[in-house]
Write a structure and sequence with these properties.
Layout: H1 8-15, H2 21-29, E1 37-41, E2 44-49, H3 55-62, E3 72-76, H4 85-98, E4 103-108, H5 113-118, H6 121-124, E5 125-126, E6 131-132, H7 136-142, H8 146-149, E7 151-152, E8 158-161, H9 167-175, H10 183-188, E9 199-204, H11 210-218, E10 221-227, H12 230-250, E11 256-262, H13 268-281, H14 295-301, H15 306-309, H16 314-331
Parallel strand pairs: 3-9, 3-10, 4-8, 4-9, 10-11
Antiparallel strand pairs: 1-2, 5-6, 7-8
């Protein structure tokens, strides 16, 4: 979607509500949702329109994903690249934020994939001085202010602790600590400025490094995207084995582990691999999956979630169903109030 505004038609599609324009106007007049501006849309005059910044307030009233009283910490990890890991992380974070849930993304990939999705270039790189923004390494090694490092996005309910190339240096620093896996849970998650977030989401790099170990140990819920491709199927056994070994070594238990099939196609191989995941991993595999579609990349170019970009396409419905299953049935259901 290229528009800078959202009409009642968009609101119905994003939040899957059946209300007609009159009912939405009634909710607006009673201040259940924020006030709209009247604009011309095509041949139509005086159409109610809302900005992206207003969507979280609309989502608090219409959304199907409700905030929890207790902070929830999620990690998205897969030991192989190219499985829609960062795409899934970004869609989860934005969808929760669209529902009025305050989310902080913590990117842990030196390729800064999440940062380039969530922020404008001038927010994370100073072209005049050819210098990247401060990141997690500056907080750990130099004592930089975490409040100043965290960046806002275009949604008032979504912030990001941006990735930088100095994550490699942070990796080396944490390796020298003992125990090396507990810095995030002891020094990062407990920081006062993170207490305001309902959800903290770690987006890990593909490699099983110290940063990934810290994210796993600090998190309560693990999401593992697995594409229905032969390379991912081959890597999946080793990937799950590493996670299990880490859990045993650290005596770590997750409240939930969810394997999300991604890049699903209507080919025989894809169907076979999907069935193999269900057979091998059982209830860990989500009942909903995400298909392969070009609109996934198109939405990211616009820095939007799939549901914002094209509410009615099949891929948007995939993400909506997967995220609702993850949040309502697997994560929020396990949160102790």
């Amino acid at each position: 979607m290229d528009e800078l505004y959202y009409t009642p038609k968009h609101i119905r599609a994003i939040y899957d509500v059946k209300h007609d324009n009159k009912t939405i106007a009634y909710h607006e007049s009673n201040k259940h949702i924020p006030p709209s501006a009247k604009q011309s849309v095509g041949a139509l005059k005086n159409v109610s329109c809302w900005t992206a910044q207003q969507l979280p307030d609309i989502g608090r009233f219409y959304g199907k994903l409700k905030r929890q009283l207790k902070q929830t910490i999620i990690v998205v990890y897969m030991g192989k690249g190219g499985v829609l890991k960062t795409t899934l992380s970004y869609n989860i974070a934005r969808t929760l934020a669209l529902n009025g849930i305050d989310v902080l993304i913590i990117g842990l990939d030196t390729q800064v994939s999440m940062t380039t999705l969530a922020l404008k270039p001038e927010q994370y790189f100073d072209l005049k001085n050819f210098k990247e923004c401060e990141g997690l390494d500056d907080f750990v090694r130099k004592g930089a202010s975490l409040e100043k490092i965290i960046k806002p996005t275009d949604l008032p309910t979504l912030d990001i602790l941006p990735e930088t190339s100095n994550l490699n240096t942070l990796e080396t620093t944490l390796k020298l600590q003992s125990p090396r896996e507990t810095f995030f849970i002891n020094k990062l998650i407990t920081h006062d400025c993170l207490k305001k977030y309902n959800v903290i989401l770690f987006d890990c790099a593909p490699g099983f490094d110290v940063l990934t170990e810290n994210a796993l140990f600090a998190s309560e819920h693990l999401i593992v995207p697995m594409s229905t491709e032969i390379g991912t199927a081959q890597a999946s056994v080793q990937n799950i084995k590493k996670i299990q070994e880490f859990q045993a070594r650290m005596n770590k238990k997750f409240q939930s582990i969810s394997i999300v099939p991604t890049l699903v196609t209507n080919t025989k191989l894809s169907r076979q691999l999907f069935s193999m995941y269900e057979s091998k991993f059982g209830n860990l595999v989500t009942s909903n999956s995400i298909r392969r579609a070009i609109t996934a990349q198109e939405s990211l170019i616009k820095k939007k979630s799939s549901i914002e970009y094209d509410q009615l396409c099949d891929l948007s419905q995939d993400f909506k169903k997967v995220i609702e299953e993850l949040w309502n049935e697997r994560i929020a259901a396990k949160v102790v109030q």
